[in-house]
């Protein structure tokens, strides 16, 4: 990790929906009082954050203040730049879910999060790519649904609350099965439900841990594959969800630099909360693509995991 200079030229890109956040305004005033040059730009419509990055010029630090969608748009802006021109990225989580920031251990309080941005260390992290789109956290198909009331109490006791939430989302996928081919470096799979999750980060849907082994600096994406699960196989699938083996009958888990999906029909995909649709898609990890300010102990860094 590299410690940045104490005095910085900073641009903070703020989602217009939370522009009236008093705690953030106070925190920015405090940083300016400490001698930092903090310019605030407020988004009004989709595309503004990405454009603001391109217009930022020579700044030491770029801060995304908003939810996962704002962060995703800022990352798109950073990836529009050459690697040498990308400023360090900081995050002040002001959205509803804040899945990526929460996974990194970034404080929810604006004052603490902004202080971390100004004083913390930057680490090189990977960025996920889905065709011409970028994602920092998770690409998902069918996740984000609430656990259905019909899911049995026995299943919940077996799995525990975290994995139970994942299983609830998996059951929601079974409502509409997507058929097609999944290609990884060492294997090819054909069948229903070709892929559910491709993770750079670990959680989505407001805290559902869908890629529990993911790290943001390992050069790999974590892929959770879900095949059709008949009602009679729920307990087997639940055990596979706990084991996360690459060879599960219903649920498989891989860590890979890339994966390609060729569905029989166009599939809706959620990239960090932003909906897109693909007739085919290649996901890949772009190693050490950006520098991110993280807490001293960041659960998503491989050094912390090891």
Verbal overview:
This protein is of the alpha+beta class and 306 residues long. The chain has two domains: 2-122, Probable inorganic polyphosphate/atp-NAD kinase, domain 1 (Rossmann fold), CATH 3.40.50; 138-285, Tumour Suppressor Smad4 (Sandwich), CATH 2.60.200. 27% of the residues lie in helices and 34% in strands. The protein contains nine helices and 19 strands. The chain has helices at residues 22-33, 48-55, 68-80, 99-104, 110-119, 153-159, 161-173, 234-243, 302-305, and strands at residues 2-3, 9-14, 37-42, 61-66, 88-93, 121-130, 133-135, 138-140, 179-184, 187-192, 197-199, 203-204, 208-209, 221-226, 251-256, 258-263, 267-271, 274-278, 281-294. Strands 1, 6, 7, 9, 10, 16 and 19 form a seven-stranded antiparallel β-sheet that branches. A six-stranded antiparallel β-sheet has the order 15-14-11-8-17-18. Strand 4, helix 3 and strand 5 (88-93) form a beta-alpha-beta unit. Helix 1 (22-33) packs parallel to helix 5 (110-119) and helix 6 crosses helix 7. The chain is elongated and about 60 Å long.
